[in-house]
């Protein structure tokens, strides 16, 4: 069973993602900020990370950069899931190492499709 790490400071979003992912048979880990997300990614080595952008302290772009540049975690695909939907945000997210960029609110089918795409590619 694939393990997915959710990094999001919104308990509502985290709960929603957890519901969707567990329903589809994924094991779910979560962190409520970027710094904890980086730490948990290094400790648990999840199969994939769903990363929010706007968070206190270390934001999602910074956390993505740290995870994708660290030797131990650079293989983990990161999908940014954010309310920020400007083209510049997408470009910047990919520059930080994110494999994909989804805009909230995300449809369940679209989320699962993208997750499967990156889990199967790995």
From TrEMBL:
Organism, as annotated: Acinetobacter brisouii CIP 110357
Domain (Response regulatory) ranges: 3-119
Phosphoprotein among keywords: yes
Nucleotide-binding found in the keyword field: no
Leader peptide range in chain numbering: none
Key words, A-Z: Phosphoprotein
Annotated protein name in UniProt: Response regulatory domain-containing protein
Pfam families (alphabetical): Response_reg
GO biological process, one term: phosphorelay signal transduction system
Modification sites for 4-aspartylphosphate: 52
């Amino acid at each position: 069973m694939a393990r997915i790490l959710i990094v999001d400071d919104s308990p509502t979003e985290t709960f929603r993602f957890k519901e969707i992912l567990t329903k589809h048979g994924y094991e779910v880990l979560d962190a409520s900020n970027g710094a904890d997300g980086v730490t948990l990614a290094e400790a648990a080595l999840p199969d994939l990370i769903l990363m929010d952008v706007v968070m206190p302290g270390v934001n999602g772009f910074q956390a993505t950069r740290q995870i994708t540049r660290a030797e131990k975690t650079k293989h983990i695909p990161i999908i940014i899931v954010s309310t920020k939907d400007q083209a510049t945000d997408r470009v910047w997210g990919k520059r930080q190492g994110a494999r994909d960029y989804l805009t909230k609110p995300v449809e369940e089918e679209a989320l699962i499709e993208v997750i499967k795409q990156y889990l199967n590619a790995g």
